[in-house]
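My main concern about presentation is that the manuscript never shows what a single data entry looks like. In essence, backbone conformation is discretised, so a fold becomes a row of integers matching the chain in length. An entry of this sort, consisting of the sequence and the corresponding backbone structure tokens, reads as follows:
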Amino acid sequence: KNILCILFYYFILFVLSSLLTFPAISQEMKVGIVDMNRVFGEYHKTKETEKEIEKKRGTARKEVSERDNELKEKIKELKDLERQIADPVSSREVRAASQKLAQKVANEARIMRDGVLDFARKREMQLMEMSKRKRGVILEEIQLAVSKHSSKEGYDLVFDKSARGTKGISFLLYSKDARDFSSKMILELNGE
């Protein structure tokens, strides 16, 4: 990834130096700018996907909470048994039986706790994978739309002004707003 960023950075430097070195080429070359973060964030499908994932996250929280409530009941049962074991009025046989049952309940509680944690972890991983997959599809749609728009408008190069290098520095340090067609892409993608 770092090598690609460095190569991209050198490519940009090469293009920009070519534009400055060869005035005739720079007059003919049409360069466009798009803010992919903004387009992605304002695309209606992105918002729909985020709502869908948040709804599924809420359902998963509810399922985890239900399992957690069952675990709390098991812990309550264990505490009741511990009180019986500690009760000096109880006979030795009752305390021994309570001790044996408490060990069984404690093991069940541990298994339930591990199950709740595992279930929550798996759900979160599923949601993250789903989010990643859906975001990838949306990004492909946006990139295709940008490519079609760029070709139709005759752009030779299009830069993403939200792109950052490995040090967090923007690849695009300056551009005229007239070359930024992010708003057009948002309107086009949203069917407005």
User: Anything to note?
Assistant: The chain has a mean pLDDT of 84. Residues 92-153 form the longest helix (62 residues). The longest strand covers residues 31-34. Residues 65 and 153 are 53 Å apart (CA to CA).
